Amino acid sequence: MSFRCTPPPKDPVRTLATEPWKLAVSAFQVSPRTWYVSGQTWVGAYLIDTGSGCILIDTAIPESLYMLVNAIYQSGHTPSDIRMILLSHAHFDHIGAAAALKALTGAPIYMSEEDTRFMAECPDETLVLDPDSHPQLFTVDKFYHNDTPIRLGDIEIRTLLTPGHTIGCTSFFWQETNPVNGERYTVAMHGGVGANTMNDNYYAKSKGLTPDLRDRFLADEPKVGAIHVDIALPSHPNQIEILDKAGQYTHESQPYLDSTIWADFMHERVRQVKALMKD
Ligand SMILES: [Zn+2]
Fold this sequence. Notes:
alpha/beta; Metallo-beta-lactamase, Chain A; six-stranded mixed beta sheet; five-stranded mixed beta sheet; 11 strands; about 25% helix; about 20% strand; binds zinc ion
């Protein structure tokens, strides 16, 4: 397998609100302990079974909440298994259903302190960015710290502040063991890489994001890209093609195992950001 990205769906919010079957996808496993559970093909959400409850990474939007809940059941889990809700960054497409998920599960919500402030100060650039989506406000219960991993069951998630796409965009790294052969894999999801908020046109209108975030993203890439990752998961499944192998996972086959993808993915995103700087 080699790294491949694909175009995102057109007009995804309206499609999810009015013709959701066009973007629907059943839950599928991506690693020994993790399932893709957003129920739709635009925005990713992942459920990690820690052996003592589950961790949910990102929630997608309220218009696709029922698809996510359905996908959690399809994965063999229930919403009441969720003990923590981790949010990658404060854009509506990742956090829009957070209020509902918190009410449904009682689980605390984690987000970076930087993006919690960004959300409070610039709602029209974060939670209510798209008029077709109708998220509810929520409170963040805990902030991330690079030096303090999040632990549940036998899973330990290291969080890394990776600014650029937003101020407090946060990436996640954790280890899983293949129960068949005992191999250990580092699984990761980058918190956000979209160049749509890392260009001069965006900065000209933005109240919260400034060009130094783009500088930081470019400067950090060698360090972030050098992290060894065996299974790289995208926050939007078009960023790293994973849908084409949906349903193929077995512990023996490990269809998503490829330690070249993470670095290639980071290089590609830097290329996209630099391409916009030449316009
Ligand atoms: Zn975003």
